[in-house]
Specification:
It is a single chain. By secondary structure, the protein is mostly beta strands. It has one domain: Neuraminidase (6 Propeller). It is built from two helices and 24 strands. The strands form six sheets. It has a four-stranded antiparallel beta sheet with strand order 1-24-23-22. A four-stranded antiparallel beta sheet has the order 2-3-4-5, with no helix packed on it. It has a four-stranded antiparallel beta sheet with strand order 6-7-8-9, with no helix packed on it. A hairpin with a 5-residue loop joins β20 and β21. The longest helix has 4 residues. The radius of gyration is 20 Å and the shape is globular.
Length: 403
């Protein structure tokens, strides 16, 4: 988990006029403008009064096909921060690969490709070893500021070119003062990755950029000192990969907001508004939510929802059929199982399925392709794995009866 040690309680929102929650905000359905303070995110006769008491073992089991992309267990290493994309007729996966414990000195970023998402090529390097931090360095496999590490941050197709995003910083904490988000560009002629330079100084994103309704790109940003500075939204990336404007989403320390915002995600709702979801590294064990009605320029105050969470990374997307899918560790007690939730409007989820479990599984990322969801995740932070889910199979699953 990136950065849980340095966080302090984050407070207040953002620029722009504060949106007062209505008196019935907790019981009325959410709306980006009329009721951004609603806590409702999970609904159904199967949902108990206390969502933390959901019997996760009794959730419907999703039929899956399983594949392992990379496994660092024989070397007692780390495989973490998994990302997927389908590009140029192939599936691509990238991840952080390091010694012993995640994000130590000498960690690199690797990738693999596949024709079908199930049979993967042998892993190869995207980055090489960080400067003066390879296995021959005295700082390798330590948590020292004298050594550097790369962290995998996602695959992005921009103007038809495939980019792999990574961060580079000191490995002493989360994060070092030299933190920067960098890009590597795939050269299809030479069949290799080439350094494309800095995307943003003092930034680590969570997932690669997505298109806003305005046509601009946007992604979330944490600075090296985001525990006090807060979480931001980066908007731009059209004229150049290094041209961005930062917008605050959650501001740091003070106020009465108990959220310790971590690893935010966002998606566009049917009306064009945006919804952001936040992992809370405080002890709420629920997902927090905020809305934007102006293409990410201002955001409502993040509110604790009723969707349970194990304080773990989550990911979501809108399916081609219009529904929304959210993959996460919804069990508040541990990162087991990995669950998949479905929503018709992107705000309230009425179905929750068991994808994989019986062990530590986390850090999911998923894509839709050819009628399937491909869910990448880490197994015990030592393997990169894929669960392939036929979307049509989800409609046949029935939720448990009401208790």
């Amino acid at each position: 988990m990136i950065a849980s040690r340095r966080l302090i309680a984050l407070s207040l929102l953002v620029a722009g006029p504060a949106l007062a929650a209505s008196t019935n905000a907790n019981t009325a359905d959410p709306h980006p403008a009329r009721n951004p303070g609603s806590r409702i995110m999970l609904r159904g006769p199967w949902v108990p009064a206390d969502p933390h008491t959901i019997d996760f073992e009794q959730l419907p089991r999703v039929p899956v096909q399983h594949a392992i992309v990379s496994d660092a267990r024989p070397q007692k290493g780390v495989n973490q921060h998994n990302y997927l994309i389908h590009h140029d007729g192939r599936f691509w996966a990238m991840w952080s690969d390091g010694p012993r414990v995640e994000d130590m000195v000498g960690q690199v970023v690797k990738y693999s490709t596949s024709p079908d998402g199930l049979k993967w090529d042998a892993p190869k390097f995207i980055t090489g070893y960080p400067p003066n931090s390879g296995p021959d360095s005295p700082h390798y496999n330590t948590r020292k500021k004298e050594g550097l590490r790369y962290i995998s941050r996602g695959l992005w197709v921009r103007d038809g070119q495939l980019l792999a995003l990574v961060t580079l910083d000191e490995a002493a904490g989360f994060f070092g003062e030299s933190l920067e988000l960098r890009a590597y560009r795939w050269n299809p002629t030479l069949q290799k990755w080439e350094d494309a330079g800095v995307v943003q100084k003092d930034a680590i994103n969570n997932f690669p950029p997505q298109r806003l309704p305005t046509g601009e790109w946007a992604m979330t940003r944490r600075r090296h000192d985001y525990a006090t500075r807060g979480v931001e939204f980066l908007i731009g990336g059209v004229e150049a990969i290094g041209q961005w404007t930062a917008v605050p989403v959650v501001r740091g320390a003070g106020g009465n907001l108990t959220l310790k915002a971590e690893e935010p995600i966002w998606w566009q709702l049917p009306d064009g508004s945006l919804q952001a979801l936040f992992r809370d590294n405080n002890r709420s064990q629920y997902v927090f939510r905020a809305f934007s009605t102006d293409a990410g320029r201002t955001w409502s105050l993040p509110v604790q929802t009723d969707f349970p969470d194990a304080r773990s990374k989550l990911h979501g997307l809108r399916l081609k059929d219009g529904r929304y899918a959210l993959v996460s560790n919804a069990n508040p007690k541990k990162r087991d199982p990995l669950t998949l939730a479905l929503s018709s409007d992107g705000m309230i989820f009425d179905r929750l399925f068991y994808v994989v479990g019986g062990r530590h599984v986390d850090y999911p990322h998923m894509i839709e392709h050819g009628g399937f969801l491909f869910i990448a995740h880490s197994g015990g932070k030592q393997s990169v794995e894929i669960q392939r889910v036929r979307i049509a199979d989800l409609d046949a699953l029935k939720m448990p009866a009401a208790k």
